[in-house]
Recover the amino acids of this structure.
């Protein structure tokens, strides 16, 4: 059918099929800003303005828009120009000169909303940004002075897993002010000095502190601001020009203008579309599979089953060197081990044909008994999930034990015997979903050199390359893995998921293939691990912990994936927080007929800290000691050994020492801001009862073996190409690494061109994980930049006839003590054309130690004792961020982590039925926090000095999740005296606990 | 995705829509906002009829009813000034709570919500039942002669062989809509009887987070006349739950003299006696026993608030009424 549409001001006649969605049609027309995140209209990534009203285009047929005026983000700039011409908006700050202009075009200007989103750091991965911009645009068209609540309501349909919504709300408020012609002050960022010398001054600082906008964060970041004198006192190094500054996301303009950035945005000629037939059974054997009808369907180019490919055992995740781990996965297998397991894969000319072909594949299943509870995995009568002889590296396949971790120091039993009190507790943490807005998406093709190119939404490009080389039996050098922008990952994209199938189809068809999961398939493909944790602690009456034991039963799902690396890497992060002489850590990693367990923000530590921090409060209550005093008495301090527990068999066994620790300051800030001493322990009566709770946590990736490398070369225009691998999932690492390079080189951020996407041009990264980008890639970039800086100064010294040591570089200008100056560009040209040498270098980085990040998180809640529902009143996070390379990005990452923590604490939970099927397969049933859910949120960065990382920075993205759920649980106990041991804290669980407690008392 | 969808029709008249929907050989469904339909992935649907041009997006009032056209979006209901006043804002409040996503509310219609029924998970259903809303549906009675598609005179018109013989319109009570509506009937509008001036309402819900779907919700409506409860409605609803009236409680209250302020113990006793007659479903999100126990709390507070509002409005309205 033919539709007449006005798209971004241009009237077009477009031919559309009756079943084509508006989303599909717009993307077919090349409007990449409209993203597919779900198929039910819940995520808002596909937002389009239809006659000025924001609507989700994935649940609209193209026909519904016939005759309508459509606006996408691509049209915002154009609309803004028109409005500016009419004099509606005041002039805005011109763009920075440089590459940014190339993205926009020489004359175009960003809309104030786009400008504000970049300015305040509301753009992280960027996948949700277009939708948010359009929702905000529609709001501001009708309401020039919206309240914060109106902004939140306008953004309520646009889900975001990165930002925690504070910064987008702040951006909209700022843009509204700009559009009203008001002058907007730049956002101030400040940190509290937490160095040991300054501890006594903290209280005084806190007294001088003013909190910006306590009624939710909008116009100002809710960070602490201290007066100028204090700022000067607290700044680690005022001479830093780029590091420590709120530098804008270097990809911001690309992302706010909706330019092609993500895998699905890049179309290739002759592209085929692939679909996967998935198992309807939790455990089954394929007795017969007939694909002849599917193959005969016109348009189908390939149908692959386990019969068509070599049976190569592999592990989808990267295990630590020295421990190979289970190789128990096959690209396609005759044994199906979870609902959603891969049965066959089809490539066809269109998505619809591929979908039809799936229905033509006839499969005869021999359904086997399913194992859905890890507590039953060790039962001798339990079905064996990996009987196949080809798999290797499994600890005990016959008993479904994928791996077993045992670690102990001292004599734990003796410790318990000597303790005055022994407290035990069992805690249950369910599986949850990372639910990044962008689903797993991969495109594969052969390039002009006949190399296999794998363009994929992944966090681990080098691991994908290594694994594909094994599976496909192709030399590693003939595979290029290209990682474009990633629309969120949070760990779920830290393994091979679809890349092997897509590559097999490209090899079979010799054509480009695109394979993407739907949201439902995403739910079925991976979940975060489910844990049952038992803690046993021996403690003296004065609060001294003398023995501590953690026993963990965890499900790795159908394959031995991240729970293995998780347990082995963190043995045990949580116990290290209150280290004592006698500690034992036991983990059983068990197979079940659940989806393979993916990594998730925190890498297993959030589960452990939930158990530990609830347990500490229980101990305090049991021995009648103040919960904070108990923590202060036992917590880890500067100079202590970190993680004395070690997994036997690990290659390296070095003792790591805590070199900086901001815990005391973090705790003091949270105490103060939460009014802890006023509110804690005052249980009120009545229907609504309030309580406060907090939790401590630490983050260290110390025991993983990682190494990274970087290449930097100087271009003749004075810019620098930085080639380095990153494994983050939100794109922030590119900006942070650019800041590190710019600072070390002495140039502005606009002189840095980051290349992070291609495995052929970036050095391999060993042990890729989310936070490693900062420590390891950052270390490599800093070292390389320092070497290039020395080369620059050497050439400059020769040009000026002065010793290089006497020269300084600042803002791309080299200056000598005698006043002579020259630009980096002049040095580059001289080096290249006069001395005929390149200024460039490579650097490798392996740190023996990475800093430990600390955090304290507190919440105040209100509980309805008649229904069990919880209202979170505020959430306060104080985080020892070291020296924050970019406080704006750090805050955004922390706020995103807090939002995820609130969800994990209150609503997120994967539930299976008796046949292993999920109850929630969309983002309506599986609720994640939206803008209207968020409570007041405060973020405080505590500055400490740690020499173990580039510029003393500490990773903040993951730890911000750890303490939220235990703080909620502790606050609940404070409010109503009921202790919960299971997440999430649903109204029904709480009400049942209240009634059970009442029955016990009566 | 509706993979087998082969026809897309824009109907400009309700009769045209009814003709299309009445075809027996082509599975045809009405298309309102699309938020429910497109999420279905129903491969049996062959044709849709877009109702957008039927001018069914309106909110109007007459002497007896407030009428809401079937194509009125939930967000229009939230924003409409008349609904902010009508029944003390019950519909506006419930429409907003029906989806936490403004994008969904911008698309989803009241007709589509009723058509989807429980699957819509919309709080609005509870409020409509509490207000004794009626669903006006229209159907066509017709004889199909030839559906081969087009004649020599009217090429390409698949409806040319259909003889249209008549139509009928009827009203179905909102709380029995799921049971009573027939295939091929099209929802035209929702008619809500005007409550008395002294009407008081309340809407409460329980959810895991503020924007999450309601595990349980309760809508209460109270009308007081001459110092007695003239009309009382107490309705429970929520996720995966058809709205259910607590008739025993309503009947206990109706006709009784109003005691203000409300005596908590009396109301609680009445609720305890009456709530056992309400059957709450169990699902993965909430058990029936949880819904029953927490339902007591919701019912108590919703009724208390509705009674208070009604009481005070009664004082104001009777005062001004007598003066006139």
């Amino acid at each position: 059918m033919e539709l007449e549409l006005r798209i971004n001001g241009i009237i077009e006649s477009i031919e559309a099929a009756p079943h084509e969605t508006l989303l599909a049609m717009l993307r077919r027309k090349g409007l990449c800003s409209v993203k597919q995140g779900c198929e039910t209209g819940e995520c808002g990534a596909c937002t389009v303005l239809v006659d000025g009203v924001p609507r989700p285009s994935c649940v609209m047929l193209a026909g519904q828009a016939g005759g309508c005026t459509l606006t996408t983000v691509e049209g915002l700039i154009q609309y803004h120009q028109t409005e500016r011409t009419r004099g509606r908006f005041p002039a805005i700050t011109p763009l920075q000169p440089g590459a940014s202009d190339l993205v926009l075009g020489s004359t175009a200007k960003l809309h104030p909303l786009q400008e504000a989103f970049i300015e305040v750091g509301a753009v992280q991965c960027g996948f949700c940004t277009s939708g948010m911009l359009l929702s905000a645009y529609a709001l501001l068209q009708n309401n020039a002075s919206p309240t914060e609540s109106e902004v939140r309501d306008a953004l309520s349909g646009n889900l975001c897993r990165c930002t925690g919504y504070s910064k987008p709300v702040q951006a909209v408020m700022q843009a509204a002010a700009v559009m009203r012609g008001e002058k907007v002050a730049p956002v101030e960022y400040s940190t509290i000095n937490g160095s040991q010398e300054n501890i006594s001054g903290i209280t005084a600082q806190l007294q001088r502190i003013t909190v910006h906008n306590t009624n939710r964060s909008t116009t100002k970041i809710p960070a602490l601001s201290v007066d100028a004198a204090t700022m000067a006192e607290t700044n680690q190094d005022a001479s830093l020009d780029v590091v420590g500054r709120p530098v804008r996301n270097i990809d911001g303009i690309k992302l706010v203008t909706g330019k092609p950035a993500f895998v699905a945005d890049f179309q290739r000629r002759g592209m085929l579309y692939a679909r996967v037939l998935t198992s309807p059974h939790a455990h089954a054997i394929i007795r017969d599979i007939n694909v002849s009808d599917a193959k005969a369907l016109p348009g189908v180019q390939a149908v692959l089953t386990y019969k068509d490919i070599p049976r190569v055992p592999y592990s989808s995740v990267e295990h630590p060197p020295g421990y190979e781990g289970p190789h128990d996965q096959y690209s396609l297998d005759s044994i199906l081990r979870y609902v959603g397991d891969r049965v066959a894969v089809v490539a066809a000319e269109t998505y619809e044909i591929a979908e039809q072909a799936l229905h033509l594949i006839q499969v005869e299943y021999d359904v086997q008994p399913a194992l859905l509870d890890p507590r039953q995995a060790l039962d001798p009568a339990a079905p064996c999930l990996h009987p196949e002889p080809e798999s290797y590296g499994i600890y005990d396949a016959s008993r479904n034990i994928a791996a077993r971790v045992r670690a102990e120091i001292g004599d734990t039993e003796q410790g318990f015997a000597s303790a005055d009190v022994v407290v035990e507790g069992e805690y249950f943490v369910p599986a949850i979903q990372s639910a990044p807005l962008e689903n797993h998406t991969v495109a594969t093709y052969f390039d002009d050199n006949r190399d296999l190119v794998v363009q994929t939404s992944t966090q681990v490009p080098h691991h994908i390359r290594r694994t594909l080389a094994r599976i496909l039996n192709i030399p590693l050098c003939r595979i290029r893995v290209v990682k474009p922008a990633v629309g969120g990952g949070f760990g779920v994209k830290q393994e091979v998921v679809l890349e092997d199938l897509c590559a097999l189809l490209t090899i079979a068809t010799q054509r480009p293939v695109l394979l993407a999961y739907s949201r439902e398939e995403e739910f079925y493909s991976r979940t975060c691990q489910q844990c049952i944790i038992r803690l046993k602690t021996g403690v003296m009456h004065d609060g001294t912990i003398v023995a501590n034991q953690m026993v963990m039963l965890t499900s790795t799902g159908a394959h031995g994936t991240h729970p293995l690396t998780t347990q082995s890497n963190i043995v045990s992060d949580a116990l290290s927080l209150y280290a004592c002489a006698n500690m034992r850590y036991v983990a059983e990693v068990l197979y079940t007929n659940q989806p393979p367990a993916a990594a998730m923000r925190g890498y297993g530590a959030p589960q452990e800290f939930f158990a530990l921090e609830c347990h500490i409060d229980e101990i305090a209550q049991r021995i009648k000691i103040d919960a904070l005093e108990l923590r202060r008495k036992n917590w880890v301090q500067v100079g202590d050994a970190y993680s004395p527990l070690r997994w036997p068999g690990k290659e390296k066994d070095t003792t790591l020492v805590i070199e900086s620790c901001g815990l005391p300051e973090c705790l003091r800030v949270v105490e103060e801001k939460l009014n802890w001493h006023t509110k804690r322990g005052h249980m009120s009566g009545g229907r609504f009862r309030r309580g406060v709770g907090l939790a401590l946590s630490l983050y260290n990736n110390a025991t993983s073996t990682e190494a990274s490398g970087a290449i930097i070369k100087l271009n003749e225009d004075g810019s620098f190409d930085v080639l380095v691998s990153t494994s983050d999932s939100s794109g922030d690492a590119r900006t942070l690494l650019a800041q590190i390079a710019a600072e070390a080189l002495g140039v502005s951020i606009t002189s840095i061109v980051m290349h992070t996407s291609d495995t052929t041009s970036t050095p391999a990264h060993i042990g890729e994980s989310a936070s490693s980008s900062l420590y390891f890639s950052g270390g490599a970039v800093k070292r390389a930049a320092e070497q290039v800086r020395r080369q620059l100064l050497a050439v400059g010294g020769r040009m000026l006839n002065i010793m290089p040591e006497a020269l300084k570089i600042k803002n791309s200008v080299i200056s000598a003590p005698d006043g002579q100056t020259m630009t980096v560009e002049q040095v580059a040209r001289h080096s290249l054309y006069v001395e005929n040498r390149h200024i460039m270098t490579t650097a490798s980085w392996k740190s023996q130690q990475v800093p430990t990040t600390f955090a304290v998180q507190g919440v105040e809640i209100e509980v309805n004792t008649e229904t069990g529902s919880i209202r979170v009143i505020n959430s306060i996070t104080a985080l020892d961020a070291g020296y924050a390379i970019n406080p704006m990005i750090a805050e955004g990452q922390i706020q995103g982590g807090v939002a995820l923590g609130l969800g994990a604490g209150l609503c997120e939970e994967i539930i299976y039925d008796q046949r292993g099927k999920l109850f929630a397969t969309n983002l309506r049933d599986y609720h994640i926090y939206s803008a209207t859910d968020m409570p007041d949120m405060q973020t405080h960065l505590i500055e400490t000095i740690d020499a173990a990382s580039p510029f003393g920075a500490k990773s903040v993205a993951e730890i911000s999740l750890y303490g939220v759920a235990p703080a909620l649980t502790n606050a609940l106990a404070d409010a109503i005296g009921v202790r919960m041991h299971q997440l999430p804290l649903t109204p029904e669980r709480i009400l049942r606990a209240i009634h059970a407690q009442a029955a016990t008392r009566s | 995705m509706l993979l087998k969808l082969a026809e897309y029709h824009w109907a400009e008249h309700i009769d045209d829509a009814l003709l299309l929907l009445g075809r027996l050989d082509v599975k045809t469904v009405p298309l309102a906002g699309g938020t429910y339909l497109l999420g279905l992935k129903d491969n049996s649907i062959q044709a849709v009829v877009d109702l957008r041009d039927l001018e069914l997006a309106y909110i109007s009032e007459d002497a007896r009813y407030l009428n809401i056209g079937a194509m009125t979006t939930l967000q229009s209901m939230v924003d409409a000034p008349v609904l902010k006043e009508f029944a003390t804002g019950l519909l506006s409040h419930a429409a907003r709570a029906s989806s936490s996503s403004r994008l969904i509310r911008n698309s989803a219609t009241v007709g589509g919500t009723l058509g989807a029924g429980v699957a819509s998970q919309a709080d609005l259903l509870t409020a409509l039942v509490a207000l004794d809303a009626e669903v006006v549906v229209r159907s066509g009675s017709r004889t199909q002669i030839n559906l081969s598609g087009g004649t020599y005179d009217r090429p390409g018109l698949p409806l040319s062989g259909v003889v249209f013989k008549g139509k009928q319109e009827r009203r179905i009570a909102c709380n029995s809509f799921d049971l009573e509506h027939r295939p091929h009937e099209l929802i035209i509008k929702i008619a809500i009887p005007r409550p008395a001036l002294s009407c008081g309402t309340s809407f409460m819900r329980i959810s895991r987070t503020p924007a999450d779907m309601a595990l349980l919700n309760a809508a209460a409506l109270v009308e007081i006349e001459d110092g007695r409860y003239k009309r009382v409605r107490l309705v429970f609803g929520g996720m995966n739950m058809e709205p259910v009236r607590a008739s025993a409680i309503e009947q206990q209250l109706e006709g009784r003299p109003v005691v203000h302020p409300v005596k908590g113990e009396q109301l609680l006793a009445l609720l305890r006696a009456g709530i056992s007659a309400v059957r709450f479903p169990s699902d993965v999100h909430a058990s029936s026993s949880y819904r029953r126990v927490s339902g007591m709390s919701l019912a108590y507070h919703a009724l208390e608030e509705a009674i208070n509002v009604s009481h005070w409005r009664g004082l104001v309205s009777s005062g001004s009424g007598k003066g006139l």
Observations:
- Chain A has 29 helices and 38 strands.
- The longest strand of chain A covers residues 545-557.
